[in-house]
Write a structure and sequence with these properties.
Blueprint lengths: L8 E2 L5 H7 L2 E7 L4 H16 L4 E6 L4 H6 L7 E6 L2 E7 L4 H9 L3
Parallel strand pairs: 1-3, 2-3
Antiparallel strand pairs: 2-4, 4-5
């Protein structure tokens, strides 16, 4: 079982359904360790995770979770998939500012 209060944790495809169905709003960061924009985005997401306690931020490595990345049609990374009540409601592709991410996420709170 995954701890529900850990924000910005890296999860696996196996843990994903439980998280998206047990949290109201989830921001799933599809990333790769070799992706420089992904690495640049990581501290921004960590900061947002600390500040936005009512949102669950998780990370999914596309190299380790390629089936899930395919299911969500992730073709460019970083890709932030915003999931509300188990369903994708929006996404942001590419490196984003903290303000842009926060504004987009707040639309669904």
């Amino acid at each position: 079982m995954v701890a529900r209060n850990d924000s910005n944790m890296e999860i696996t495809e196996k843990e994903f359904p439980e998280i998206i169905n047990s949290s109201k709003l989830v921001v799933a960061d599809f990333f790769a360790e070799w992706c420089m924009p992904c690495l640049m985005l990581a501290p921004v997401l960590e900061e947002l995770g600390e500040e936005m306690k009512n949102v669950k931020f998780v990370k999914l490595n596309v190299d380790d979770n390629s089936d899930l990345a395919g299911k969500y049609n992730v073709s460019s990374i970083p890709c932030l998939v915003i999931i509300k009540d188990g369903k994708e409601v929006d996404r942001l592709v590419g490196n984003q500012s903290k303000e842009d991410i926060e504004e987009k996420v707040n639309e669904f709170l």
